[in-house]
Predict the 3D structure of the following.
Amino acid sequence: MMKRCLMTMVAVMTLTMGWGQVVTPQACEQSIVMPKETGRYLWLPIEEKAPEGKVQVIVSGMLQMEQNVRMAREQVDYYVALDLQPYQGKGELRVCVQNVPTGSVCYKKLAQNDDADFALIDEKFRPLYHHTPKRGWMNDPNGMFYKDGVWNLYYQYNPYGSMWGNMHWGHSTSTDLIHWKDEGVALAPDVWGTMFSGSCVVRTQSAQSGQRTQSIQDGDVVAMYTASRPTPFGGDVQAQCIAFSNDGGRTFTKYEGNPVLTAEDKDFRDPRPFWNEDIKAWNLILAVGQEMRIYSSSDLKEWKDESRFGLGYGNHDGVWECPDLFKIDNKWVLICNINPGGPFGGSATQYFVGQFDGHKFTCESKPEVTKWMDYGKDHYATVSFYNAPDNRRTVLAWMSNWQYANQVPTMQFRSANSIPRDLGLFTYNGETYVSVVPSKEMLAVRGAKVKQPTEACEIVIDVKKQTEIVLSNAKGEQVTMTYDATKQTFTMDRTKSGDVTFSADFPCTTEAPTYGTIKQLRLFIDRCSIEAFDAEGKMAMTNLVFPSEPYNTIKVKGGKATIYQIEK
Ligand code: FRU
């Protein structure tokens, strides 16, 4: 590799750098790397604790993109890929690194080749049957939809490091909700900002409404997302944008009339559009501060402000984010992820049950009633797949918590999604709740019965009035779970589960109501997570654990366990 490192200290030239503008040296350290002509990936060496520098791609003097990257100064923790393919053969290609001292180790350790698996670390906490990004950071699931036998999952993604930043939409596909294929980046940052959370809709026969006038594509999948960018005056501006795909969601073309919805509110994001057959129009639910706004549209571009929901209802100890709104049987469920404010601190998913007439959501519970979808600490940003078959309401959550998501002890990737779950309704003491059960696809990976727990297994436990379950390993690390039929609670104690030191917010015991008695528990263990469900769906609890070796012993008092290997 030919590499030229320059240290340029130039007087400030007042040219704001923007997309496609001429690059002017700024008054800061700047190193220019000249990649070879062949080799698709330029591998950037990362040091997790290093401050962020800027990496820019420049073709014939024009800035193509820039990202914040923790380029290694003293040691290389892992590598991330800068995909040069879109820029190769288009002119003189340069990669400019800013704010990373010239003596830093990253310049010596840069590599370039075609090997997508270059320096991939085999991490002991990478789940075996949960969706994870191959490299980099992941938070919320985005834009999930089902079409022509394929489940599409997009996600909040930083391809350039394992901590939050540089938000893109990553994309994975699956035909069974378990085996996921990495489809790369679907949406990358642009002039409107980085790509925050959003959703996709599929134009079906009935949802043809709206003149298909967009000059781009007459696409059948439309993504709606938030573009977020810092303002010169501090803070961020968030605006809603759309993009079209006519290849089933593999590639998107952004609408040239973006953004389609703007406001002055600070937290204005995470659009969830959906076709509402009742009013034969599109609806949109959007999180704004601590309320949800509801809109309607005939074309996904012009939105009419219909109503607001939330003031005085449920939990308000944090910002409302990532909404969803859908019908199950004859009721409507409004999902409201909230951070912080969760029952055990940090992020969690609350929901409201009621009616929606296409204009206004009316909650059927008293304002002070708060309902949580999952009583663990690591279940956030839950949203559903659009257009799922057989009238299913299938959801995925992000299995982490903003309190410590950036610190969990994985390295080259961070973090995972929950297993797929299907939602329904149940009634207890006159209140209607959302039921949560593992999707039926989880039965397909149930393998042979085994005697002891393994790093990837499902444990089915027939419970009695009082049941205590202790999972442990030879290091004395353990997780204790209890079911108490008298108190009607299920608890999980992870205070001694392994590595709990990376955050004071991590060690804890979580407790869930079981709404009456339960008969059977299903526990899903996958290296660094435990997801517990009442088999009937009245209780769900998702918690991360980081044991130094897998739990291989189970002791059950007051119950009987059957253990199945999970064979992916
Ligand atoms: C939720 C969230 C969203 C936002 C995204 C940014 O976890 O804060 O509200 O769109 O993450 O990554």
Q: What stands out?
A: Helices lie at 105-109, 441-444. Residues 139-140, 156, 167, 196-197, 226, 269-270, 321-322, 381 surround beta-D-fructofuranose (CB under 6 Å).
